[in-house]
Each structure stands twice: as structure tokens, then as C-alpha cells.
Design brief:
6-stranded mixed β-barrel; alpha+beta; 6-stranded mixed barrel; 26 helices; 22 strands
Length: about 850
């Protein structure tokens, strides 16, 4: 231990004499380790850390797969109300099982009315999750089945909307203007459902309390619910799936006649898997990117350590000649490297903490569990362990290289020059070639993502987002319990909006492009015979009111738009998009063709196509267009035919669309004021321009591009510094050689070319290796690219030429310095 303290004091004195070297090394490592630690924090919170529920590995998602329906992913379509009731009571593999569905309520009775996100849940969900409330209790099975109006608040809602009211239990709040009694507050870190991003988190939970409409036979084909359960001890997911499959057979036997041809199968998988499956490719790519930056930083540190070892060859020779042991020298050099790397790790932790605090707000909405991302002991341990490993790796090679010092040669007069030997030169060159190759891989990835982003930005959205203002609304059922009341509100709102100065078109819709929401409706096309084994016909449906297509700037390709005559009792009509028309009537005019909703067995009326419009990007611009059709809100009840219910309400929620000649931001207050003049308590949410909505849909790919691009810039910068340092040191070691060449008549231009050739050779070798590595890593990037091949020749060429030119430029300064040598002064010094 005494030797260790002695070595530590010696190393600190040595570093104190080389402050520039020490500061450069620590900052370089801090950047690499800090970036790696920050991204590892995200990976650890999202992918590696167990869900915030007791024994979370036993929590499963139970859902249906519907034969003949292709919805992508794992083809999960959710569950129905009969599913929830049957699976809950008839399965035996779960100790607790429940169903839930997202909902939105108008919260009033405390402060300004606000639209809040909520979840309707059966009592089994809380039991399955196994988390006790911080205050009060959760609702019971009896309260759920008897439609008791009780609510459990999230911690954030209790703090922000009720100011941590300690007497909150037993108080009444108004949800859609109906009184609900607050019976509990969940803990700070409780979140369910585990929605992605920082928006749309659940603010409160209420009993599911199925309505008469939900229990009606016509609702048995509504797969818009979800289920979660906890496995019994010793039960596997496969056993639970087999158990649920038996129940699914019974569910199908009880289907009404109109669903007799539908076939479902049960699917059970971990909640953790469902939560993280969409984020894995991005996080793996990010982690690879920061690992590359760290690797380059380590290579640079190893290079600096090697230069330092070469400069200290005479010192090492003297110490060896005086009897110093090789082991002691190795220990001191490794200790020096460890001291630098641990210092860089501690500084990197500070940088990572700052980066996470600032960066959490800009993380893409595709990431789940963002609130849990933070430095914890696992992350701190990872950072410090990484620092130690980095120090050991970076210190080993220079330490052993220093021991190859020729003691006799370095103690002679000529040994004072500290020139590097052939082995040292090869090692330094190898390190720089590796840096260039690795940096080129990351730069190629960045260029591919940038090209993908530009391709996405140039996609035709199918509508014009400029000068469009939108807002979401939901009419509370207590005040709008009849269709006539809903229709009166909608018509009056459209009338007043159309009278606003500058307004050119207004509308309402159940589905807003770029909103991230979606739906799938089965339908039957008259006269169409599907190929053998074909999936069911699925399309996304939008119910619209007003001048929706002019308001959104959607082009009419054939036929006409909806008119005021398309009402209840008149001919049932719809408008299809180009993709649907081409699928079912290729090369034909779709006007006058007919289809109906549901399946062949369902008794629904025929709808006549009166118009064909351009395809619209419903989600992100880089997602493929979907088959879609539009129907008037006024005909929604008639369209459903036998599937309709007397309690159905149409047009009681959705989105308001307003196109004006004025800047859309100026219309937001006017829109709010108009709504308040009709219903002073009705809140609007997601009030924004369509350009903002489009920007939000582009955010994940923009985030990928900016982050990978930043790491690529850092990697290339470090690689350029690496090649600069090796060429600069090489020039410094060959000063006498350059002086002799110039004394013998060599021109300064020839000296510049000589040095540039040295740097160019390293760069060319590095670029060749980097292109090969980029091709090998292409599979990882493929899922993140849009309309760009991972082997895009333009991108590969630009990246390689860019790195090559930067490397040559990095060799230019040492080359000019070599050409400016005074031969007489250099030779006199010798």
C-alpha cells in the first residue's frame, strides 16, 4: 500500500508538470465517457430496468389475434368486452387479470375546466400491477360492477391540480360534469398505461363500469380494449397462453351470427416486451454511436500516452540503468492512465447529469418511461467501471512500448532527441487508421439518416398544412346526452367560425392527419372477389362535417365533395382515397361504386362512392399511405345499420379544423373565444397549427438525425485531431532529417508533399477499412432509414471524401511547419 501511495504522489507530480497533456486527456475522456453514460442512462431506464411494479417479470399483456386481419407488428388487435369478462372469470393461469381503455374527460369543479387523459379500468388491473396507493385506496370489483362514480388520482395531478390537498379523499370532482368521489392517490412513480413520451400520461383512473351499449351484442366486434394480468407463481407465459386459448374457443362459440366467421387466438407476452419493442433499434444505434465516440477518445488517449512515453524514453532509460524494476514502471504508467480516466469519468458523470436534465425535454415521444431516466447507482457504477477499464486499456500498450526502450542508445548523446522507433511509429499509425475508420462508420450513418430525413421532408403529405389551425374537443355526455344537442353545438360552432375575419373554410373530423391516432374498419366491396387466402378488407375511417377537404387542402381527383344535402335519410355516400380506389377498382372510375362496413354476415346498408381524393399521410410522413374513406357525421348512424345503437352519439368529440388567410397562430385565441361563447366550460386541447403537428410527427427521425450527427461530428473531430497529432509528432521527430534534405537542395514544396503523403496514406487506409465496416454495420441502420439504401453510393462517397479531405487538411499545418524549418539552426542544434 505504501508503494501505491508513493507511485500516486509521483504520478501526480509528473502530471502537474504536463498540465496541457493532463487537461486535454481528461476533457477528451470526459466527453466520451459523459456521452456514453448519458445514453446508457436512457438504455438502462427504458430497456434494462425492470418495470416499476413488484415482480414485474410476471406481468403479462393478454390480447387477441384476429385471423385474416393484418395490422402490422404482432397483429394484436386488442380485446373486446366479452373477452375481458370471459378471460377474467375463466382463465386459471393468472392471480389477477383486468381490462382497461384510455378515455378523456372534462375535469371541472376545481380551477379552470381542463381536458384530462384518464383510464377506465376493471378492479383486476390494480391487483395485477401490485402497487398500493399513497393515499386512500383503489376501487373494488363491487364498485366497478355497480357503476360507482369514484376516481383515483395520479400523484402529478394531485400536486398540480389539487396542490397536495391532504383532505382530498372523499371530495367530489366533476368528470364530464358528473360528480366523482376521490378515493385514492397513487405514488409518485406510478404510471399506467405505460404510454410513450412525455405527453398523454394518465391523470386519473375510474372504474370500467361497462355501459349497456358496450354490453350489447353489436359491440362484440369492438377490439379497442386492452388487458394486463399477473401470472401465478410457477406459471409460464406459454402455459398462460394455452390457458387463454381454451377460453378463446368458448368466446367464439358465443359470437352472434353476424360474427360467426371470425376466428381469434389468444396471445400472452410480457408487458416489458410490449413497452420497449419499438424503441430497441433506436437505442441500440445510439449506444453504438456513443461507444464509437468513446472508442475514438480512448484511441486518442492511447496515442497521447504513447507520445508521452516516447518523449520520456531517456528518463525511462536512466531509471532502468539505475536499477528500477520494469514492473514498477508499468505500474506507474498504468496508474497515470487510471488517474486520467477516472478523473475523466467523474467529470463525464457531471456532464451526463447536466445533459440528462436538459435533454429529457427533447427526447422523442416514441420513448416510454421518460420520467424514469436519471443517473442512479447502476449508471454511476457503469461509468466508473468504464473509466477504470478505459484507463487499463489505454495505459497497457504505451507502458509496454516504453519498456522496449534501448537503454544504451538513449543514454548516448543522440538519445536526447527522443525520436520514435519503427515499432512506435507503426503503433501510432495503426491507432490513427483505426480512428479514421471508426469515425467514417459513424459519419456514414449520420449522412444516411440526414438523407432519410430530407427524403421524408420532401414526401407529399396529401394536404397543405399552411394556414391551418386545429384543436381537439370532447363534449361531456351529461350536457350533450342526445344527438340533437351534439348537432346543435357543432353547427353553431361552424357557423360562428365561418364568420371570423380571414376564415376561408372550417370543419370537424374524427381523425386528424399527423395526429398519431388511427383506427381500422372492416368493409365489404360490392362485386369484389378477394384472392384465395386474402386478409379482410381494412381501411381507416374519418367522419367529417363542414368543408373538411378544402380546410385541409386535400385535392379532389374525381367526383365531388360532401354537401349539406348529404344528411340523415338521404342517399348514403362516402369519399375514398386514391389507394383504396386503385386496390378495388384498378383502372376504373370509382364514382358510383358501393361498399358497406363490417363483414359479409353483418346487415349493413350500401354506401355509394361520390368522390375520390388524394392519399393523406395519417401519421408520420415516412409511414406508408393507408386505404382510407370518409363519411359525413350526419349519416354515421345510418351507415351502421343493424350495428347501430339508440344510445350512439356521433360528432361529440374530435378535432376542429380552421383554414384562414391570416397566420394560423393568430386564430388560436379566436377559436377559443368562439367555443367559450357557445359553452363557457368546454376546454380545448392540442390547440396548434397543422405545421406544428407535422413537425411533431417528424420529431423522432429529426432526433435520430441530430443526435447521430452530433456524435459523428465529435468522432470526426477526434479522428482529425488524432491524425494531426501523429503527423505533428512525426514532423517533430524528423526535424533533423528535414533540415538535411533542405540543406542538400530539397525544395520546401517537396517537404510539404512528403508530409502530406504520410497523412494521406493513413487516411486512405482508414477510409477503405471504414467503408468496409460501414457496409458490415448496415443491418443495424436499415430499420431507421427511409427510402435510402444503407449502401447508397452517394452517401458512402461523400462521407469517405469528406473524411479524406479533413485528414489531409489536418496534415497541412504540420507540413507547413516542416517546410518552414531553418536548416542552419536545426543542424547547429544537433
Amino acid at each position: 500500500m505504501q508503494k501505491l501511495f508513493f507511485d500516486l504522489r509521483f504520478v501526480m507530480r509528473q502530471l502537474g508538470k504536463s498540465r496541457g497533456f493532463a487537461i486535454t486527456s481528461v476533457l477528451m475522456l470526459a466527453f466520451g465517457l459523459g456521452a456514453t453514460t448519458a445514453i446508457f442512462s436512457v438504455v438502462e431506464a427504458v430497456l434494462l430496468r425492470p418495470l416499476p411494479f413488484p415482480d414485474s417479470e410476471r406481468i403479462m399483456v393478454l390480447s387477441d389475434r384476429l385471423a385474416g386481419v393484418n395490422v402490422g407488428g404482432n397483429n394484436e388487435v386488442g380485446v373486446t368486452v366479452p373477452d375481458i369478462r370471459a378471460y377474467t372469470h375463466e382463465t386459471h393461469a393468472f392471480s389477477a387479470l383486468g381490462g382497461y381503455q384510455g378515455a378523456a374527460y372534462e375535469l371541472s369543479g376545481t380551477g379552470e375546466p381542463a381536458q384530462v387523459n384518464a383510464s377506465r379500468m376493471t378492479a383486476g388491473v390494480f391487483s395485477a400491477l401490485g402497487v398500493n396507493p399513497q393515499l386512500g385506496r383503489v376501487f373494488t370489483v363491487d364498485e366497478d360492477e355497480h357503476s360507482q362514480q369514484v376516481a383515483v388520482l395520479s400523484y402529478a395531478t394531485w400536486v398540480s391540480r389539487f396542490q397536495r390537498d391532504a383532505q382530498i379523499l372523499g371530495k367530489k370532482i366533476l368528470l364530464d360534469r358528473k360528480p366523482f368521489v376521490v378515493i385514492g392517490v397513487m405514488p409518485r412513480n406510478f404510471e399506467f398505461p405505460l404510454v410513450t413520451g412525455q405527453l398523454n400520461r394518465t391523470e386519473l383512473w375510474v372504474p370500467m363500469s361497462f355501459t349497456g351499449q358496450e354490453l350489447a351484442p353489436v359491440s362484440a366486434a369492438n377490439w379497442s380494449y386492452s388487458m394486463v394480468g399477473r401470472l401465478k407463481p410457477g406459471t409460464t407465459a406459454k402455459q398462460a397462453e394455452s390457458d387463454a386459448e381454451t377460453v378463446a374457443l368458448g368466446i367464439m362459440r358465443n359470437y352472434p351470427a353476424m360474427m360467426g366467421n371470425l376466428r381469434i387466438s389468444a396471445m400472452v407476452r410480457p408487458l416489458q416486451e410490449e413497452t420497449t419493442e419499438q424503441t430497441k433499434p433506436l437505442l441500440k444505434t445510439l449506444f453504438l454511436a456513443v461507444a464509437v465516440v468513446l472508442l475514438i477518445a480512448c484511441v486518442n488517449l492511447a496515442g497521447l500516452m504513447l507520445v508521452r512515453a516516447i518523449r520520456r524514453q531517456r528518463e525511462v532509460a536512466v531509471r532502468l540503468a539505475l536499477g528500477a524494476r520494469a514492473g514498477a514502471l508499468i505500474r506507474q504508467m498504468i496508474l497515470e492512465s487510471l488517474l486520467l480516466s477516472v478523473s475523466g469519468g467523474l467529470l463525464g458523470l457531471t456532464m451526463a447529469a447536466v445533459a440528462l436534465r436538459v435533454g429529457k425535454s427533447v427526447l422523442p415521444e416514441s420513448l416510454p418511461r421518460i420520467s424514469e431516466i436519471a443517473l442512479n447507482w447502476n449508471v454511476v457504477g457503469f461509468a466508473l467501471a468504464l473509466g477504470v477499464v478505459t484507463g487499463l486499456v489505454c495505459g497497457m500498450a504505451p507502458a509496454f512500448a516504453a519498456l522496449r526502450t534501448n537503454v544504451n542508445a538513449n543514454l548516448k548523446e543522440g538519445g536526447r532527441n527522443g525520436s520514435e522507433g519503427g515499432g512506435h511509429a507503426r503503433l501510432r499509425s495503426t491507432l490513427v487508421v483505426a480512428e479514421i475508420a471508426i469515425a467514417l462508420v459513424l459519419l456514414t450513418a449520420s449522412c444516411l439518416l440526414l438523407r432519410s430525413f430530407e427524403k421524408m421532408r420532401s414526401v407529399d403529405l396529401g394536404f397543405r398544412p399552411d394556414h391551418v389551425t386545429t384543436a381537439s374537443y370532447s363534449l361531456p355526455q351529461k350536457q350533450y346526452e342526445k344527438q340533437a344537442q351534439v348537432d346543435t353545438f357543432n353547427r353553431e360552432l361552424l357557423r360562428q367560425l365561418n364568420e371570423l375575419p380571414g376564415v376561408t373554410a372550417t370543419a370537424m373530423t374524427s381523425l386528424l392527419p399527423q395526429g398519431g391516432n388511427n383506427n381500422n374498419q372492416t368493409f365489404v366491396v360490392e362485386g369484389y372477389v378477394p384472392p384465395k387466402g386474402a386478409d379482410m378488407n381494412l381501411a381507416t375511417v374519418s367522419q367529417v362535417m363542414g368543408k373538411f377537404f378544402p380546410a385541409m387542402g386535400i385535392s379532389l381527383l374525381r367526383g365531388r365533395f360532401f354537401t349539406e344535402s348529404d344528411r340523415h335519410g338521404s342517399q348514403l355516400v362516402l369519399i375514398v382515397n386514391h389507394k383504396l380506389a386503385q386496390h378495388f377498382w384498378p383502372g376504373q372510375d370509382p364514382i358510383g361504386k358501393r361498399l358497406r362496413i363490417g363483414t359479409q354476415e353483418m346487415q349493413t346498408p350500401w354506401l355509394t362512392v361520390v368522390g375520390e381524393v388524394a392519399d393523406v399521410k395519417l401519421t408520420s410522413p415516412d409511414d406508408p399511405s393507408k386505404e382510407q374513406y370518409y363519411t359525413p357525421v350526419d349519416q354515421a348512424e345510418d351507415d351502421a345499420g343493424s350495428l347501430a345503437s339508440p344510445t350512439d352519439l356521433n360528432g361529440n368529440g374530435g378535432f376542429i379544423v380552421l383554414r384562414s388567410s391570416l397566420p394560423p397562430e393568430q386564430m388560436e385565441n379566436a377559436l377559443r373565444s368562439t367555443v367559450r361563447s357557445i359553452d363557457p366550460l368546454l376546454p380545448l386541447t392540442q390547440v396548434q397549427t397543422m405545421e406544428q403537428a407535422v413537425s411533431l410527427s417528424e420529431a423522432p427521425r429529426r432526433f435520430n438525425t441530430i443526435l447521430i450527427g452530433s456524435f459523428a461530428f465529435a468522432a470526426v473531430l477526434l479522428a482529425v485531431l488524432g491524425i494531426y497529432s501523429v503527423i505533428s509528432f512525426s514532423v517533430a521527430s524528423r526535424v533533423q532529417e528535414m533540415a538535411i534534405r533542405m540543406a542538400l537542395g530539397s525544395q520546401r514544396g517537396a517537404i510539404v508533399r512528403l508530409v502530406l503523403e504520410s497523412g494521406t496514406k493513413l487516411a486512405v487506409v482508414g477510409c477503405v477499412l471504414g467503408l468496409g465496416a460501414a457496409a458490415a454495420a448496415s443491418g443495424l441502420l436499415r430499420s431507421l432509414l427511409f427510402d435510402v439504401s444503407p449502401f447508397d453510393p452517394l452517401v458512402l462517397s461523400v462521407a469517405a471524401v469528406g473524411v479524406l479531405l479533413l485528414s489531409i487538411a489536418a496534415s497541412g499545418l504540420p507540413a507547413l511547419r516542416a517546410a518552414s524549418i531553418d536548416p542552419m539552426r536545426a543542424l547547429r542544434g544537433d
